Amino acid sequence: MMKPLLAAGAALLALAPAHAGTLILAGDATIAFRINTGVTTGAASLAGNVTFAKTILGAGKTVAVLGDSENYNGPGQLTAAYNSFAGVTATSFYGAVTDARLENVDLLFAFFPSRAFSMAETEALTAFLDRGGTLFLAGESAHDPFGNPLGLASNTRINDLLAGLGSTMRLDQVSLDISDQFAVGNEVVAHPLTAGVASFGYGLTTTVNGGAALFLTNDLKPFVAVETIGTAAVPEPATWAMLIAGFGLVGGAVRARRRRLESFAA
User: Fold this and answer.
1) With 42 labelled, which of 59, 116, 121, 264 sits at a CA distance of 20 to 30 A?
2) What is the maximum span of the chain, computed from C-alpha positions, in angstroms?
3) What is the C-alpha separation between 155 and 159, in angstroms, rounded?
4) Is 53 in contact with 82 (CB distance < 8 Å)?
């Protein structure tokens, strides 16, 4: 009876969830050049941005930045910032997000995207998260200080991607905290990713719904949040067959044992 049980157990193990990844969502793309500014000038007020940039990479060493951005300088600034960190290699790329591009990447940035993400790209990003990668998405405030549309289209692209990834987070289409701002005090939420951050620089932003808040606006609304995300591994047909056969054998053994007990009782 042990062999069928072991077979069924192995099949159940095959249904265990895949490794989960980290998804970070921000409502402000100016974080990109604030990281770079903090690296090049060492400004104390931006030191927290640099600390946060290092913390979200963790023990990883490879960073990729999607170049298709409404902020033309952002990808280059992010790449330069991470390349200034010891032992880290950062590159930017344009075009489709594919499994090949994400191979060996630990942290991927898509800031203020200038185009929608295809189904194939969503699948590649899902696989990236499933194997433990970190994805950082950033939109923008809905309007600039003069009321002109700013991040509306980009935020919609990100929200569509988030839905495809199965995320609970979304970007709001609002505009808060005009001009240069710093999250300090209770605006920096206690979390492993914010450890050591006393001040976090940002600018005009939109807010984030869902996830665990990391940084809050002046009126204590989240504009950076994080969630752990990953899909359950889909069993192969052979695994389903093993599972069904295993439980069938176990059921047969139990029924046979019950008949023997009943015959002895008679």
Assistant:
1) 59
2) 91
3) 6
4) yes
* Angstrom distances, CA of residue 183 to CA of 2, 12, 58, 84, 197: 59, 46, 22, 24, 10
Residue 98 has pLDDT above 50, yes or no: yes
In this structure, what token pair is assigned to residue 194? 């914010």
- Cα angle, residue 172 at apex, residues 169 and 177 outer, rounded to 5°: 120
Closest C-alpha among 172, 171, 177 to residue 145: 177
Say whether both 114 and 209 belong to one domain. Answer: yes
Could you read off the pLDDT of 233-255 as tens digits, one per residue?
344 444 435 444 554 554 555 46
Q: What is the residue range of 256's domain?
A: 2-14+235-265
Shared domain for 87 and 202, answered yes or no, is: yes
The answer to whether 82 and 134 have CB atoms below 8 angstroms apart is: no
Q: What is the mean pLDDT of the chain?
A: 83
How far apart CA 200 and CA 217 sit, in angstroms, is: 11
Same domain, 160 and 137: yes
User: Is 7:245 a contact under the CB 8 Å cutoff?
Assistant: yes
Residue 74's pLDDT band, with cuts at 50, 70 and 90, is: confident
What is the distance between the alpha carbons of residues 259 and 190, in angstroms, rounded to a whole number?
Answer: 61
Question: For residue 195, with 0-12 CB atoms within 10 Å meaning exposed, 13-18 middle and 19 or more buried, which class applies?
Answer: exposed
Q: What is the pLDDT of residues 120-135, one digit of tens each?
A: 999 999 999 999 999 9
CA atoms within 13 A on the CB side of 43: 15
